[in-house]
Amino acid sequence: MPEIKQATRKTENPYVNLYELETKDRVGHDKHYYVASRAKTAEDLKLSTHNEKPDGVIIYGLTPEKDKVLLVRQYRYSLDEYIYEFPAGLVDPGENFRQAAAREVKEETGLTLSPLTLENGYERPFFTTVGMTDECCATVFGYVSGNLTSEGEEDTEDIEAFLVDREEAKRILKEERVAIMCAYMLMHFVADEDPFAFLK
């Protein structure tokens, strides 16, 4: 089994940092590996804590009629391009993940989110891109209402929100850049008569 000997923080950023891991591979060779993390210290890395406390949330919000889904089209520096995603964001200290989801939806879109409370494990935190980060996010499912606005958008964000029907979702999947987590859920939305049926 591989072994991690030491983790060293290499950057000093407020939201995400790079950690260098000194490791041995499964046959005993010394290696260096790099991990991006929301952790503030090496002791807070999930490889140290082994907890699944969510760093962030992803929101799958439908209109009450379940005929439209909430998407955002956001500029991402990593691509130098706009990409379709679900609203998402970090869980602030003192918040639970459902509170964080409602806050993020309001800030990014102006809409009000009424989260569902699930007991079947679908909203428990899962890991995102484990080859490069220990980030863990909870998916919050719920209904959205109100009017779309960009009044809560921060200067560091370039986001446009949309409520899209199934035909527009199909077009987006065919023609646009889409984050993979969003793409999988859009496939449910397009194909399922009741997009929340799998939650039962």
Automatic annotation (TrEMBL):
Its cofactor is Mg(2+). It holds the Pfam family NUDIX. GO terms for biological process: nucleoside phosphate metabolic process; ribose phosphate metabolic process. Residues 52-186 form the Nudix hydrolase domain. One of its GO terms (molecular function) is pyrophosphatase activity. This is NUDIX hydrolase. It comes from the Bacteria. InterPro entries: Nudix_hydrolase, NUDIX_hydrolase-like_dom_sf, NUDIX_hydrolase_CS, NUDIX_hydrolase_dom. Belongs to the Nudix hydrolase family. Keywords: Hydrolase. Gene3D superfamilies: Nucleoside Triphosphate Pyrophosphohydrolase. PANTHER family: NUDIX HYDROLASE DOMAIN-CONTAINING PROTEIN, UDP/ADP-SUGAR PYROPHOSPHATASE. CDD domains: NUDIX_ADPRase_Nudt5_UGPPase_Nudt14.
